[in-house]
Amino acid sequence: MKAYTLKQIGGVENLVQKEIPxxxxxxxxxxxxxKAIGINPVDAFVRSSEQGLSIFVNxxxxxxxxxxxxxxxxxxxxxxxxxxxxxGDEVFGLxxxxxxxxxxxxxxxxxxxxVALKPGNISFExxxxxxxAALTAWxxxxxxxxxxxxxxxxxxxxxxxxxxxxxxxxxxxxAFVIGVGSSENKDFILSLGADQFIDYKKEKxxxxxxxxxxxxxxxxxxxxxxxxxxxKTGGRLVSLITFFDDELKALIAxxxxxxxxxxxxxxxxxxxxxxxxxxxxxxxxxxxxxxPFDQLPDAHIQVETHxxxxxxxxxx
Length: 316
Ligand SMILES: NC(=O)c1ccc[n+]([C@@H]2O[C@H](COP(=O)([O-])OP(=O)(O)OC[C@H]3O[C@@H](n4cnc5c(N)ncnc54)[C@H](OP(=O)(O)O)[C@@H]3O)[C@@H](O)[C@H]2O)c1
Fold this sequence. Notes:
It is a single chain. This protein is α/β, with parallel strands linked by helices. Strands 3, 4, 5, 6, 7, 14 and 15 form a 7-stranded mixed β-sheet that branches. A 6-stranded parallel β-sheet has the order 10-9-8-11-12-13, sandwiched between helices. A two-stranded antiparallel ribbon has the order 1-2. It folds into 2 domains: 2-130 and 285-315, Quinone Oxidoreductase, Chain A, domain 1 (Alpha-Beta Complex), CATH 3.90.180.10; 133-261, Rossmann fold (3-Layer(aba) Sandwich), CATH 3.40.50.720. The chain is built from 11 helices and 15 strands. The mean pLDDT is 98. The protein is globular, with a radius of gyration of 19 Å. Helix 1 (41-48) packs across helix 2 (50-56) and helix 4 packs across helix 5. The structure holds NADP nicotinamide-adenine-dinucleotide phosphate (NAP). NADP nicotinamide-adenine-dinucleotide phosphate is lined by residues 40-42, 133, 136, 156-157, 159-163, 181-182, 185, 200, 218-219, 240-241, 262-264, 306-308. Residues 40-42, 133, 136, 156-157, 159-163, 181-182, 185, 200, 218-219, 240-241, 262-264, 306-308 line the site of NADP nicotinamide-adenine-dinucleotide phosphate.
């Protein structure tokens, strides 16, 4: 099968396409013929950083590295211990995160517990997009922050991969949603269902919002400190990037906040929840650009701009 292996840490030229053996599945796995691959900022981080590779993939010594975790595809073979999935089923999921997902390939061996059936009414591209980023939004808002109707929810990076799903999930729950982004994404963020838009380049969000029940922060420590000013006492905050040092822990205590620094995890049950929302039309993937497999390195260049609206996807 064809796959991209990582020659060495560095630029996109190190993503090398070659023929490798099709993976063997374990008894609890299915072999998926990949149709679409979602690309995330973490993919580029791991490609270009020794530290990133060791944190997020941690390959065995001398093991050939195949990046990627987000897939949608068709089941080709089913392991003997797998129940509820069969050859020909269309599935999507986040594969083995954190760990060696090996998704940049024609076939991927996948733990059956990490995928859900792809809704029939959405494309493989839309499903491949709604994996790591959508799961992050779900686990941040539903699992950690436990958002509920009428919560005031502020979402940073609302036009991005995670943010555009987070706006829709919060809206679906019945929250009042404030999306923060740059002016060129205002109409997009409002079209996702946000009730209010804040342009972070022109306005200080913490001067406009002082009583958020929930904040999803995907930025640096300076932004996170300002987020605590926008959070009401006793509010919930989820940080995707910044870990809590002593200064931030003091802010958490001062605000009596419930604060979580989360890392997304592969989870088939959460994928089923996303599949339900996608099936209902309550959640939609905005796929800005689809790249053919031969142009996968260009998708890395795009994601590294950190200015992608919604998601980008590679088709196989
Ligand atoms: N901890 C975890 O488990 C986890 C999971 C997923 C993602 N992440 C991280 O969360 C971040 C967001 O992920 P993503 O997939 O949504 O990324 P993305 O698709 O690249 O989107 C990022 C968005 O952030 C906005 N942005 C960029 N620079 C900004 C700045 N200086 N100030 C304010 N907003 C800025 C951009 O919106 P505008 O163009 O409107 O400015 C962009 O749409 C990434 O750093 C990613 O690595 C962490």
